[in-house]
Amino acid sequence: MASPKIHPTAIVEDGTNLADGVIVGPFSIVGADVTLGEGVELKSHVVVTGRTTVGARTRIFPFASIGHQPQDLKYKGEPSTLTIGSDCLIREGVTLNPGTEGGGIQTTIGNNCAFLANSHVGHDCRVGNNVIFSNNVMLAGHCEIGDFVIIGGGAAVIQFARVGAHAFIGGMSGLEQDLIPYGMALGNRAYLSGLNIVGLQRRGFSRNEIHDLRRAYRLLFAQEGTLLERVEDVAEEFKDHPTVMEIIAFIRAGGKRSMCTPKNGADS
């Protein structure tokens, strides 16, 4: 692997840790506490600062702002961090903020994620692997986003919200509650419109797995009883079904947190 390549117009502060194959493009700025992994490329006009680590082969496009002070008025300069995984795509104008003392002091982003133009990840968020943020997605602070989540253009997620793995949030939606794994949320304010069947099929889930999920979904969001009562019934019936039990574990872990639910009973 070749030595780092730094354009003459770029500024790389003393102390920066650049691995082999890093490319720092024109008019980019890299701060002293930044670590760029093998093959990372900053296209041009990129700023990476703070205690930020960027994983191997991640590509960052012009005017992205990575690792600057979080947008939290309580932030007092504590040594918080931002960690970005490998093979991520960070397009134009994206903003990714580090953590704060009140939220665990770190923001983490997994591998193989795509953040399209002008999307935002707030302080203290935890974003899984293979996540896609479409253009102008707004993720507030302290959110948890599971693996393979897709968020449509212009959608907004409220602070502290949890979004389960393989879920889908439609464009222009406003999510104010937790969204179950494999769920699909639409609208402003968002409601649970069913399961992310297309996503499950694309990722190779079997017909039987999808059938079990659909049956469990209808039982969980039926009209009878409370959600907590239905959770216990479904947990007993589907105790040997890992995908269904993932939803059960997600709901249980939320305690008394509000869940995103269907408008009128369970949809298909």
What are its keywords?
single chain, 268 residues, alpha/beta, UDP N-Acetylglucosamine Acyltransferase, domain 1, Udp N-acetylglucosamine O-acyltransferase, Domain 2, 11-stranded mixed beta sheet, 9-stranded parallel beta sheet, 4 helices, 28 strands
Distance between the termini: 51 Å
Please identify which CATH superfamily of the largest domain we are dealing with: Hexapeptide repeat proteins
Structural class: alpha/beta
> Strand count, sense and closure of the main sheet?
11 strands, mixed
CATH topology description of the largest domain = UDP N-Acetylglucosamine Acyltransferase, domain 1
Shape category: elongated
**CATH architectural grouping of the largest domain:** 3 Solenoid
Number of domains: 2
Strands side by side in the biggest sheet? 1-4-7-10-13-16-19-22-25-27-28
Give the rounded overall mean pLDDT. 96
Please give the oligomerization state of what you see.
single chain
- Helical element count? 4
Share of residues in helices: 10-25%
- Poorly predicted sequence stretches spanning 5 or more consecutive residues: none
CATH class group of the largest domain: Mainly Beta
What's the total count of β strands? 28
